[in-house]
Amino acid sequence: MAQLRIASRQARYGGGWAVAASIAVIAISLFALTGWAAGSELLIRLRTSYSAMMPSTAFLFFVLGTVVLWLLTDRKARKSAVAVTIIALLIGAVALTDIVLIVSDQASGVDALVWPEIDRNRLNSMAPGTAACFILAAACLLSLNGEGRRRDHFYVLSATAGLLVGMIAVVGYIFDAEALYRVSAFTAMALHTALCFVLLFTALILLRSDTGWAGLLMGEGGGSKGARRLFPIVLIAPFLLCLIALIVTEGGLLSSNFRLSLLAIVMMSLLAATVLRNAMIENATERKLIAAMDDLRRAVDDRDLLLRELYHRVKNNLQQINALVMMEAGKVSDESARNSFKATAARIHALGTVHRLLLSSPAPSRLKVHDFLEELCRNIAGSQGAAERGISIEVRASDDLIHIDSAVILGLIVNELVTNALKHAFPDGESGNISVLYTARSDGGARLCVSDNGAGMAAESADSLPGSGVGGRIVAGFVRQAGGEMSVENDQGARIMINLPPDFKKELETGAS
């Protein structure tokens, strides 16, 4: 079912004002309809020299005010797109018919066609400006049904145009009603008609306060707050100045030419004062922002210092543990047990490499994958005597930054796979090459491939690397924990490929384990 696009109640800061404006439109329309029913000139004209609010005008205001109030207060109304569309089309049809009748001179508008007793005086008909505003209001209601930036722009443009027309008429009545009547579009527009349009289009603008200039004015940013401070001054000050100048001139205290000069100077002064006031507020806000940024920078520096100190202590502790393990290995006579001690020492050394590289990294919790794998494989090669055996280790990796958690897991996996290849891929003193390839995928994941051109391995499951024992279980465990996939291939040597998913890297980048 189609649903109307209306700003949520939480986002409509002006929701209360919109409801009040809609109720006021309904009240004024009932006021005028009561005047026509009772034959009271005061209710339909407000003053005998003013134009009257016609019955069709009052009825359309009642319908529009009711629809807007319904949309503002009833959530179920958002699902009644068809009903709102029909109402909008009927309102537009009535207003367009009125314009056609006036232009063709067949009758003084819709009211004279339906109610012939009404005089054909132009002050007793729906004004062209009134009909045009009703068409704009109908266009706003039609724009509520559907999606798209163009519809939003059309809605805001229509509502703003109607609001400006209503404000022109209201201000024209305040300054000089006779001068207003000389403009053909406003000749028959009543004062309370103009006031109703101001209220109606204000409610329509607030109905979609999440878009257009109303969204900017109602926003939570500093610019929106500054606009709300300046808006009353920009709207009220020029109006009051012009009204005072008019009153003073009509009282004979100033000539019309001097009035314009004085008005120009006063408005320039007020606008300059407003600009300076806004500049003072923005400068104060900027000073607070700079102070907050300095505090944040100092906090970050302190955090970095603490992290580097922590990494330094962890590295030293790991070196001590590694030395103790190697001392214990020297006391053991059993070759298998001694190898287990050495394997454990190698794993501790891999962890120490992570923390040592973090000390020199520009980012205290990240390091470059290429530099890390290069140094790790260099240490493994040195400890296993790879160069003396004629075995080379080639590392090809991207320069991506990797989080400490990712580096620890990646380092332990590479340590196990490279160590396993050095031990088992080249029996009987054979020479060869081991390749470590790390590439980042476009989807945020990564691919690790450790291969050799040695003797290969027997067909076994990917969860168990031959000859690695505990190492194979470590690799398989880390791969499962990361949600990755591991496969083993035999093609002129062994190739172990591990695909790490995007969320693995994402979680570790935020510090999750």
Set down the secondary structure blueprint.
Layout: H1 15-38, H2 41-45, H3 55-73, H4 81-104, H5 109-114, H6 128-143, H7 149-181, H8 191-207, H9 212-217, H10 222-250, H11 256-331, H12 335-360, E1 366-368, H13 369-384, E2 391-397, E3 401-403, H14 404-424, E4 432-440, E5 446-452, H15 470-482, E6 485-490, E7 494-500, H16 502-509
Parallel strand pairs: 2-4
Antiparallel strand pairs: 1-3, 4-5, 5-7, 6-7
Helix pairs in contact: 1-3, 1-8, 3-8, 4-6, 6-7, 6-8, 7-8, 10-11, 11-12, 12-13, 12-14, 13-14, 14-15
Gist?
It is built from 16 helices and 7 strands.
Mean pLDDT: 78
Give the overall form: elongated
> Spatial order of the strands in the main sheet?
2-4-5-7-6
| Strand residue content | 5-15%
- Structural class, by secondary structure, is alpha+beta
| DSSP E strands, number | 7
What series of H and E elements makes up the topology? HHHHHHHHHHHHEHEEHEEHEEH
Strand count, sense and barrel status of the largest sheet are: 5 strands, mixed
* Rg value: 40 Å
Count of alpha/pi helices:
16
Helical fraction equals: 55-70%
| Contiguous runs where pLDDT drops below 50 for at least 5 residues | 460-464, 507-513
Distance between termini? Answer: 45 Å
Number of domains: 3
Write up what this structure looks like.
With 513 residues, the chain is α+β, with helices and mostly antiparallel strands. It has three domains: 15-219; 222-361; 386-513, Histidine kinase-like ATPase, C-terminal domain (Heat Shock Protein 90), CATH 3.30.565. Helix content is 66%, strand content 8%. It is built from 16 helices and seven strands. It has helices at 15-38, 41-45, 55-73, 81-104, 109-114, 128-143, 149-181, 191-207, 212-217, 222-250, 256-331, 335-360, 369-384, 404-424, 470-482, 502-509; strands spanning 366-368, 391-397, 401-403, 432-440, 446-452, 485-490, 494-500. The strands form two sheets. A five-stranded mixed β-sheet has the order 2-4-5-7-6. A two-stranded antiparallel sheet has the order 1-3. A hairpin with a 5-residue loop joins strand 4 and strand 5 (446-452). Helix 7 (149-181) runs antiparallel to helix 8 and helix 13 runs parallel beside helix 14 (404-424). It is elongated. It starts with 14 loop residues before the first helix and ends with a helix. Mean pLDDT is 78; it is low at 460-464 and 507-513.
